[in-house]
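[audit] Reproducing an earlier prediction to check determinism. Same input, same settings, fresh worker. If the tokens differ from the archived copy the diff job will pick it up downstream; this log only records the rerun itself.
[audit] input (91 residues):
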Amino acid sequence: MSQYPDWFRRADAAILSYLSRERPTYTPLIANRLGMPTDYAEERVENLVDAGLVEPVSAEVVYRITERGEHQLAAYTEHEGAPEPGLVVPS
């Protein structure tokens, strides 16, 4: 008999290993660090949560850009160039 359930994958072990070394983090960051597609990492993390192996630590809201936001950014970039990273102070 196996020491772990049939549904448990190598990706699950990698996620657990990562989380044991790092502070709590977002699934997309886990996916990036482990070189796996974000959708797949999200699926695996959900399975780990269902099994009680991983738990959410906050209900923090995470934002993403909308299609309208993409159009706005494209228009800005076309006119002004790519925005520079870092602190933006109104002029």
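[audit] rerun output stored. Observation attached for the diff report: Helices lie at 10-21, 27-34, 38-50, 67-80.
[audit] end
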